[in-house]
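@channel sequence for tomorrow's demo:
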Amino acid sequence: QVQLVESGGGLVQTGGSLRLACTASGRTLSTEAMGWFRQAPGTEREFVAIIGGSDVLKAYGDSSNGRFTISRDNAKNSIYLQMRSLKPEDTATYYCAARADSDWRVYRSPSEYTYWGQGTQVTVSS
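structure tokens (generated this afternoon):
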């Protein structure tokens, strides 16, 4: 059973930075695409970023606008999301997700991911 655990969320002021981490256990996820999503209250879960197994294949959602960077460390079975120039509209629960296969394309729908973490809250104050 794969478990994903996010960390690194918190309260930050507008313009600040946060680095989220997601560590997998139960299975080595070195070739599977993994991604970040976020969800604010009353909204649908939104695609933020995806990374392939090689740390070369990456894609971002519209919310990134060049401010977010996704990376992974397969030795640690982890992915990361570096967020800079944060805005109040970035406030949400951020979720880590993983595919169960090694296929690559830009998977933007939550339904395309098999494994999910419990989420970490990011709050950006104005």
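heads up for whoever presents: The longest strand covers residues 18-25.
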